[in-house]
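ARCHIVE CARD
Drawer: 12
Card no.: 0347
Subject: one protein chain, sequence and derived structure
Cross-reference: see card 0346
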Amino acid sequence: MDKLSDSVGFKYDFKVADDGQYGQQKATGEWTGMIGEVIDGTADIAAGALTITMPREEEVDFTKPFMSTAINLLVKKPERMDLGLGYLVRPFSTDFWILLLISIVIVGFLFFLIGRFSPYEWIKVPDEKDLRGAKNSFSLRNSYLFTFSSLTWQGFREPPRSISGRLLASFWWIFVLFTIVAYTANLTAYLLARPEQMPLMPFKTYEDLVESNDISVGALNFGATQDALRKSRDQTLQNLWNKMSQQGSWVSSYYEGLQRVKKSDGHFVLFAESATAEYLARKNCDVMLYGDNIFHKSYGLAVQKGSALGSMLNKAILELRESGELELLRQRWWRFAGECSGIDGRKFSQKGDSLSSLPIYPVTLRDMAVAILLLFLGMIVAVVFLILELIYHTIATKGKIEKPKMLDKKIFKAPKVPKFTKKSKEKKASPQDPEAGVSEPLTDEALEGTSGEG
């Protein structure tokens, strides 16, 4: 009104309607509320969340619409759904969890077998060379510790030493990588879609409201919403109107309706114009809008029939709309008016929905087929290489020729060179001498050098 008064050039005083109503025609033809006061001249302008309707248009002049609206339900936000103790296991299906446990048992036992029987594992290292105490790295207990620690991306001091053990570890780590990535991604999706953002509602459609005996439906008495429901030709809305008339759950003001919604614990809902309902939800974090939009309408200012004030207000409203002032005012007083979020329940999960019906599905065996096949392939390859290692080690061991024990000791000695006497060197043989060419018999000293072992 400040913007309009500055543009048109008038001063104003606010006055609340004596009966607190917007205006509805009585059976006598008289009008109540703000419309009645404009007609009889008590007020020059009727301003507020005043809906433009045909019966009102026949009695007063409305300005150009300054805001569009519809009819929604104002409901209490449902309580947070119980997640249960098994919420963290939801990212995987039951059959995949079973397969994962079986895989841990099998892989851990294979590590133990490889560590026990492979001739190239730590257990075969001599004690004097096992400086780090790695011989028991793949005992039964440590094999399962290695398997589980790698599943949680934790380190281990001693990796497998043999080719078969390293092959099994490599395929197991690939399987673990796929598993952890899938779990983390799916758990994130579940947390983003947790019931704080998708609570369950006790009803889904307006038909459910008609059939429900636990929920009362109210509306503002003598308001445009009440009049629209009464005149509606939609069968569901007619049935809803009959139910509301029987219950008599009308409210005299939106404040009264808000308090009933908040205290009803979900057993009372209020039909309200969406602009008003949104404003109330911004200020009160325990309520929200819900239901499909019905009865699309607009708000306008009402003046007396034929008043020149109407054309001046129309011009000012058009200027405010084209300049963007109306949108700024809406953001200021609606979007940023309160601190409450999640006020639009139309995007929330509805009746009959649960986490299993949300567009988030657990990871199944089919989804992890590639990782599972790689793991089982790795098991087979590791067992084959273990057998090959045993065969190779057996052949290599039997093929070695043992060194004779006699070669370990020096049992032969080189013979000593014979010693000749001086006499044998000086004696010369002659061709005429019959004893020529016959050596002198060895002496006892010479024999000592050649006889016997040194």
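Annotation on reverse: The domain at 1-66+300-336 is CATH 3.40.190.10 (D-Maltodextrin-Binding Protein; domain 2). The mean pLDDT is 78.
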